[in-house]
Amino acid sequence: MTIQAPVTRQEHNLAHVVFISAAAALGGFLFGYDSAVINGAVDGIKGHFHVGAGVTGLIVSSALLGSALGAAVAGKLADLRGRLIVMRLSALLFVISAIGSMFPFADWELAAWRIVGGIAIGMASVVSPTYIAEIAPPAYRGRLASFQQLAIVLGIAISQLVNFAIASMAGGEVRGHLLGLEAWQWMLGVAALPAVIFLVFGLIIPESPRYLIASNRLKKARQVLADVEGEDIDLDARIGEIQGVLRSEHKPSLRDLRGPALGLLPIVWIGIALSVLQQFVGINVIFYYSASLWHSVGISQTNSLLISLSTSIINIIGTLIAILFVDRIGRKPLALIGSVGMTISLAIMAWAFSAAQKTGGTDVHIPHSHGLVALVAAHTYVLFFALSWGVVVWVMLGEIFPNRIRAAAMAVAVAAQWIANWLVTVTFPSLSEWSLSGAYVGYSIFALLSVFFVVRYLHETKGKKLEEMG
C-alpha cells in the first residue's frame, strides 16, 4: 500500500494562489474569446447585412473602441471600489453584450452591442493582470501573470472550436440556420457562457491585499497574504512594507503620469510602446480575419475555420513555452527572440502574398506553393508571438510601473493597446483589398522596430518585488 505524503502548508498556499490567479485570468479568456469569435462570424455578418470591406472593418473593430474606454476608466474605478467590483461589472456587461449581439436588427446595432462588450473586455484587461500581479508571490509572479495570456489564447482556441462546431451543425455555412437563427448569431451569443463563469468566480475569490491595506482592512489583508505568501513570512513586516509604499503615495491620476518626455514619464512611454508594438505587428489580423482570408483564396468555410483552430493551437503551445521560461531566462530575452522570429516570418508572409491575384470581386488567388508558404509562415509567426510578446507584454505591464502610479499608468498603457488594436483591425480589410502583401510588409517593419525597442529600452524585471519598481 502506497502512503501519500501530506500536503504541506506551502503547497496549499501555492495551490490557492494558482486557483485565484486562474479565476482572475478568466478576464483574459473573455478577451481572447471575443477577439476570435468574430473571426468565424465575419462572412456571415457581411452577407446578412450586405456590407462592404469598410463597414465590415468598423463592425469588427467597434468592440476595440469600447475596450479603450473600458481600459481608461478601469484603473480609477479599481482604486476607488476594488479590483473585484471591476471584474464583476466587466462580466455582467459582457453577458449583456453577447445576448444583444445575438439578435441585432441592423449593422449599427450590432456595432453598438460590440462596443458594450468592448468596454467589458477593456476593464477586464486592466484589472485582471493588475490583480494577479498584486496577489502573486514574487517568486511565482511571472508564471502566474502569464495566466492572463494563457487564458487569452485558450479563449481564442475555444471560440474557434465552438465556431467550427456551430458551423458544422448548420450545414458547414456561417449563414446556415440552426434553431431559427443563423450560425454566426449563435457564435456571438454563446460568448455569454464564459462571462457567467467569470462572474461566479469574481464572487468567491479574495480582494487584492494591496487594495485591502489601502482601505485599512488590515485583518482581511493579513489573512489574504497568509493564504497566498504563507504564514512563515513576517506578515507584520510585509504589511508594513506595503503600508510604507502606500503612505508615500497618493491615489494615482493621469496628472501623476506627467513628465519631461513629451509630457509623460519615461516609464509610461515604455508601457505605451510595449502595448502599441504588440498590436502593430498585426497579430489580431490573424485572429479576426484569418477564416475570411483563407476562404477568400478558395478554401471552404469549414476548412477555413479548421485552419484558424490550428493557428490557435500553435498559439497555446507558444504561450506554454513562454510560461515555462519567463521566470527562468527573463522577460527581455524572450521578447528579443520573439521580435526576431516575427520579423522573419512576417517578411516571408509578405513575399508569399505578393503572388496573390484578384479573380473578381474581393476574391484572390494564390498559387499552391505560395499559399503553403503563407500558411507555414503564419503559424510560425503566431508561435513566435505567443512565446514572447503575447506573454511578456502582459507580465511587464503588471510589473514595470511604480506602486504610486501603477493603476493609472496601466490604464493608459492598455487603452493605448486597444486603440492600436482598433487601428490595425479597422484598416486591414481595406489594406488587403489594396495590397495583401503590402499590409504584411508594414507589420514586418513594426516587428523589426520592436527588436531595436527591446535592445534599447526594455529592462529586466524578473524576480523583483513590486515595491522595488520605479
TrEMBL record:
Membrane topology field: Multi-pass membrane protein
Oxidoreductase in keyword set: no
Main location: membrane
TM annotation in the entry: 12-33, 53-73, 85-105, 111-132, 144-166, 186-205, 261-289, 305-326, 333-353, 373-395, 407-428, 440-459
Pfam families: Sugar_tr
Keyword Zinc annotated: no
Sequence ranges assigned to domain Major facilitator superfamily (MFS) profile in this UniProt record: 20-462
Location in the cell: Cell membrane
InterPro entries recorded: MFS_dom (IPR020846), MFS_sugar_transport-like (IPR005828), MFS_trans_sf (IPR036259), Myo-inositol_Transporter (IPR050814), Sugar/inositol_transpt (IPR003663), Sugar_transporter_CS (IPR005829), XylE-like (IPR047984)
Keywords from the UniProt entry: Cell membrane, Membrane, Transmembrane, Transmembrane helix, Transport
PROSITE patterns: MFS (PS50850), SUGAR_TRANSPORT_1 (PS00216), SUGAR_TRANSPORT_2 (PS00217)
Gene3D superfamilies for the chain: MFS general substrate transporter like domains (1.20.1250.20)
Family membership: Belongs to the major facilitator superfamily. Sugar transporter (TC 2.A.1.1) family.
Full protein name: Sugar porter family MFS transporter
Gene source species: Actinoallomurus liliacearum
Taxonomic path: Bacteria, Bacillati, Actinomycetota, Actinomycetes, Streptosporangiales
